[in-house]
What we know:
There is one protein chain. By secondary structure, this protein is mainly alpha-helical. It is 58% helix and 0% strand. The chain has helices at 2-19, 30-38, 40-43, 58-64, 72-82, 96-112. Helix 5 (72-82) packs across helix 6.
Amino acid sequence: MRILLLILLFAIALSFFIFTSPVQAGEISDAAKIFNSNCASCHIGGGNVLIAEKTLKKEALQQYLKNYDTDSIAAIIHQIQNGKNAMPAFKSKLSEDEIIQVAAYVFQKAEQGW
Length: 114
């Protein structure tokens, strides 16, 4: 049931990114703000300042995140919530909605090549 809820929330978040008007120059989306406030210190521009090969580029996500090829968003959400190795868990720092927004943002940026 929880997975269905996450999928539904992801679909809503993704439709927000797809069907809203483009961000005007100088504006930044809520998801980008959350990412910049919580993730960019290590993952600026989709990179990784601690472990160079573990970036947020699509190829690295496919290689390092379990089930990325079958359910990309769920794999990203799991990583954000639980962390792994040097990455801390954010499930107690970010709300479920914020985690979904960041996951959708990371997925979108990875698909676009950062």
